[in-house]
Structure formats: structure tokens, C-alpha cells
Amino acid sequence: MALTKNDQKLTIAMPKGRIFEEAIHFLQQAGLQVTAELQDSRKLIIPVENAKLEFIMAKPTDVPTYVEYGVADVGVVGKDVLLEEERDVYELLDLHIGYCRMMVASLPDWKPTEALRVATKYPKIASQYFREQGQQVEVIKLNGSVELAPMIGLADRIVDIVSTGRTLRENGLVELESICEITTRLIANRASYRMKSEAVDEIAGKFLEVIPRGN
Ligand SMILES: Nc1ncnc2c1ncn2[C@@H]1O[C@H](COP(=O)(O)OP(=O)(O)OP(=O)(O)O)[C@@H](O)[C@H]1O
Ligand SMILES: O=P(O)(O)OC[C@H]1O[C@H](OP(=O)(O)OP(=O)(O)O)[C@H](O)[C@@H]1O
């Protein structure tokens, strides 16, 4: 079954890593042809010839970049990445998968001091949040293991994703404030949305049918 009603090929940027399995399951439920190559291969470009589809396997934070520049027509990406990267793309659908929360956390005995430092992988989200709260903070960008920062005295608080809460718990940190809920989104390149509207609408329609209800 061809996905597109015309001859236009659709390129989909897929996030490698944590949400990949859930995203693949979602594509399968939506009736897209998910080949063994897509599920179990080190190839980064995976064409599905008879469906006029091509998948590119991207680092999650790069998905909006590929979509903004039009090298991918659509992409699957977390809302956290969209908020942080601020790329010029259309956000078409909330897929209601990849649930987690963006939180402020600290050691349990944290008290406001004069030098407020916040460590995070998400400097834009953190800066905007504390600006809106009227709090002046110094934001320190880290690339991972953010929970270390309060434990070793680099920062008072962190802004990070919490899912099960296990990482906070096992490192003796507590949730202070919730910034927002995070889920996985379908995004589209602005030109593709106009020029390949049939193909983009068709894929969005298939996704819409399998988005978990009640969310
Ligand atoms: N517990 C979680 N921690 C981090 N991300 C989560 C979690 N649950 C769901 N997500 C989603 O998964 C995406 C992150 O996936 P992943 O950790 O593979 O990417 P990454 O941060 O680029 O990885 P890394 O930098 O560790 O290679 C986030 O954008 C978020 O939307
Ligand atoms: O609430 P939990 O279920 O414990 O999940 C949250 C943790 O998962 C993520 O880290 P990740 O595993 O991506 O590693 P990182 O430290 O390299 O960002 C996130 O940054 C938290 O540290």
C-alpha cells in the first residue's frame, strides 16, 4: 500500500534513543510499514521503497533542525526539545507517548540564598521559567548527569526531566516545582506542509487514529 496518493516521497526524522521503541510501536499501530531494517540496524537512512517513505535516524535534539531545513518533511520529537531548540516548524500533533515532566528539583534542605545557581540540559526552558517567576538565577548548562550538580555544590537547584522519579530518589533530591508536562509530538516543515499536503495529511490522519484516547 502506498502511503502517499501522489508520487511525492516523505522523509521522516525519527529520534534515536529513549523514545525510539515507543515511536516505532506507534508507527506500526498507525499502519506504517516498519521494516526490520528500521528496527534493528545501524543505517541512518532507511528507505521504504514501495511506500514512498524514507526514515532518517537522528539524535533527538537534532530532529527539529532537520525539519526546519526541510531535509526531513516531518519529524517525531519530544516537546522538551521543541521548547529548547525553538526551531521554525509546524507542530501538528501531540502523539501522547513519551510522557515525562520538566521539573525544578533540589536537595531537601534547600533554602533561597543570594547566589542562585541552576544546572540543566535545558538552559532556555530554565531561563524563561525563572524569568517568569521573577527570580534572577545563573543558569549552568550541563549535558547529562544533571542530578550531580546540587550534590557536589555546583548549583542549588536543577531543571530536568523526571519520569519515574528514580534518579531523583536515588540521589537524595526532591521535586520542588513542575514547569510543564512533556510528550512526543509530530512536527512538519512549513514548505512540505504546503507542497506535500496530501502526504503530510495522510500520515497525520493515520497517527490521529491511534493516539491513545483519554489523554
Ligand atoms: N525519563 C526520561 N528522561 C529523558 N527523556 C525522556 C524521559 N522520558 C521520555 N523522554 C523523552 O525522550 C527524549 C530524550 O531521549 P534520549 O535520552 O534518548 O535523548 P538525549 O537526551 O538526546 O540523549 P543523550 O544526550 O543522553 O544521548 C526527550 O526529548 C524526552 O522527550
Ligand atoms: O525519573 P527517571 O525515570 O529516573 O528519569 C529521569 C532521568 O532520565 C534522564 O536522564 P538520562 O537517562 O537521559 O541520562 P542523562 O543524565 O545523560 O541525561 C533525565 O535527565 C533524568 O536524569
Automatic annotation (TrEMBL):
HAMAP family given for it? HisG_Short
Functional description taken from the UniProt entry = Catalyzes the condensation of ATP and 5-phosphoribose 1-diphosphate to form N'-(5'-phosphoribosyl)-ATP (PR-ATP). Has a crucial role in the pathway because the rate of histidine biosynthesis seems to be controlled primarily by regulation of HisG enzymatic activity.
Subcellular locations according to the entry: Cytoplasm
Q: Which family does this protein fall into?
A: Belongs to the ATP phosphoribosyltransferase family. Short subfamily.
User: Which pathway does the database say it acts in?
Assistant: Amino-acid biosynthesis; L-histidine biosynthesis; L-histidine from 5-phospho-alpha-D-ribose 1-diphosphate: step 1/9
Please report the name of this protein according to its UniProt entry.
ATP phosphoribosyltransferase
Biological-process GO terms, alphabetical:
L-histidine biosynthetic process
Q: Which CDD domains match?
A: PBP2_HisGs (cd13595)
